[in-house]
Write a structure and sequence with these properties.
With about 160 residues, the chain is mostly beta strands. It has a single domain, classed as Sandwich (Jelly Rolls), CATH 2.60.120. It is built from no helices and 9 strands. The strands form 2 sheets. Strands 3, 4, 5, 6, 7, 8 and 9 form a 7-stranded antiparallel beta sheet that branches. A two-stranded antiparallel ribbon has the order 1-2. A hairpin with a 7-residue loop joins strand 8 and strand 9.
């Protein structure tokens, strides 16, 4: 590849996922001898809702072990019709085999490339790992036709202002 070149990998992954089928779907290892940018986006091809988003995949040497949710399902909504944090989830991706991830009321061991979806996130919920991980936060209003947002959490420390 030359500077400025791009590669677009487009997969339609049917749910539930057929593990016998090969897809580029987030558990793939990417190696590079020079800096690159990687973004993963997603949307439903069968939904009548217009919900989509994308997250940047950071170079794994910058991944961390402690994360705190800055928003959650208990974040006050501006009004009954606009509830941007009605559903809040975290996605945690492991860099190394045998990574223990601890999150509200549970823990799990992930291997390199594995990920976990954690639902029902509230403000201040913490995720810790004994080895570096990347954590993305997805938030939205499931009943709307276009209210979703995706964020990468970057060693954010939540401090209560109450």
């Amino acid at each position: 590849m030359n500077a400025g070149d791009s590669v677009v990998i487009n997969n339609v992954v049917e749910l539930p996922r057929d593990l016998s089928q090969f897809y580029y779907d987030g558990g793939d290892k990417i190696l590079s001898s020079a800096p690159i940018k990687v973004v993963r986006g997603g949307f439903s091809v069968k939904s009548t809702q217009y919900l989509a988003g994308a997250v940047e995949i950071y170079e794994s040497s910058t991944w961390k072990t402690d994360f705190t949710a800055p928003v959650g399902e208990n974040t006050p909504a501006p009004n009954a019709l606009n509830q941007p944090f009605e559903s809040v989830e975290l996605y945690v991706m492991a860099k190394e085999d045998g990574t223990t991830v601890t999150y509200p009321s549970n823990s799990i061991v992930l291997n390199e490339g594995d990920s976990i979806r954690i639902t029902g996130i509230n403000v201040g919920d913490e995720v810790t790992a004994d080895k570096p991980v990347q954590v993305d936060l997805l938030a939205g209003d499931p009943g709307s036709t276009g209210s979703s947002r995706f964020f990468e959490l970057r060693w954010y420390v939540y401090e209560s202002r109450v």
